[in-house]
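Here we describe the complex-level prediction in full. Unlike the single-chain runs in Section 2.1, the two entities below were treated as one system.
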Amino acid sequence: MSMGIMKSLKDNFDKNLNVDIALDFDHFNLRCQFRFDLEGITGILGHSGSGKTSLLRVIAGLNQDAKADVILNGRTLQNRNNFIKPEQRKIGFVFQDARLFPHLTVLGNLNYAFKRCKPNHLDLEEIIHLTQIDALLNRDVLKLSAGEKQRVAIARALLAEPELLLMDEPLSNLDNRARGNMVQLLRNIHQRLSLPILYVSHNIIEIQQLSDDVMVMENGRIIQHGHVHQVLNNLHERITSEISSPTSLTLTVKQHLVNFGLTQLDFIAPHNNQVKLFAPLMNASLGQALRCYILADDLSLSLVKPEASSIINCFCGTVTQLHRLSRNGMMVKVQVMDHTFTINTSRYAVELLRLAHGTEVYIQFQADAIRCF
Amino acid sequence: MSSNDAWLALYTTLKLAGLTTVILLLLGTPLAWYMSKLNSRYKVILEAIVALPLVLPPTVLGFYLLILFSPTNGPGAWWKSITGQSLAFSFTGILIGSVIYSLPFVVQPLQKAFEQLGDSLLEAGAMLCANSIDRFFTIVLPMTKASFITAASLGFAHTVGEFGVVLMIGGNIPGETRVLSIALFDQVEALNYATAHWLAALLLIGSMVLLALIYLLNFNHERNVKDRVAP
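The structure predicted for the assembly as a whole is:
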């Protein structure tokens, strides 16, 4: 078999999305060109009005005016001459406003998708269970809470058995607690169905907790694209001017100190076994990898190693970047082994400690600064 | 006028109104849909044409239709050549006249309902593999049911109340073009007030009942919409 055929066969079997869009609006132009493998959850982060929703709508086929090439898993959905209708694209869409059919019950909404989906590999019962809507089936959709509506909308989208699921700010109408539950639920769904997801949000924590890869959009263009930790720990200035970026880490569970209500965590690849990280007691098994974040305001810096301190997490790193956030606020990046930490502090403190590029500092923070949904 | 003639006029009226309503629903729905999605400055011209029968004296419409239907002119001659019958002074003639005359009463409520419904649920349907015809019957129709009933009732009632157009193009042929309103006019001309009272009361009560039903339905529907908009 020649290399050419091998390559085209490989392309057919690879799951990927190829997009090239030129779309002009009154106020801004959307220009996107990317190709990436569809596996896991890809987060799209950006301010409102940066073109995230427009991008999803073009991929879904809901914007017929767009000049675009869209190729999903080797199938051309749209190019100069062809336009596959949205109902034939095998793409699911969870809208910000759920968009449940008000003339149908919850079960009616689910069946709407289930009946129209040809292969029917999924089990209706299982999806209902997975999205935790067992108790809602006969309810009027107008009497559901925001979180319940989104769970039904997600179940409905899954039942259409798409090859790719697009989610447009699905959690933006939820309170913080419901948002945490939903993130957990989305992780479970993704794990169970291994369905690739494009997840749009302006909430950096949601993106951090869910995504494997992150694309950052600004003014209709993709300005960053890469692994979640790499992108979020080095966010572009144009984004951090409005969104305070947390430190993004994957940590593994080393041991539980149940008596103290603490869990000891490790960096994934510990170069230095001296580093001990303590977090509040977590419901996770030993060795499990946890996606954690630390808010920049929860970290502080010291030039000397604080001995006998009540702050239990402390380790040494090197200042790599200093950036002025506001009149009196500074953002400091500190490299600890191959992890970048983002710390917010005051300009006064930076001058007092004479922080500069290359300064050795100690990062310290309380156990409950390590967060995860 | 015998009571037989009155029943015949009632029958003609109901047949005319019923057929007009059916034709208007079949033609008016796609037209209303097209107008609700139209995003062009020429939309107002189309809307003005559809609304014209609301303001135009029925006799003006009737006059132009009479000229068009005349066997000596284009459309009328064409109709005569294929059916062998004149379009003027025939049931088909007044049916066409009624369809045009009652058009806005069917198209306007439907257009408004489609515009109010918007695209969001239809987009949701498309993302669940429903094609456009499927979406119309499973989303649009159930969501705008009340407007369809309103449109049909208004179209029906307005056709029952029609007078000028029928008089101009239909004349007064029993069993063919003599509808209740014309029969009433006849009786009054003949100073036959007893029968006239009877016919007038029939039209009055019938129209009242129909309108009351429409408003009751609208009232319930609007309460529903309010519930749905602000749960």
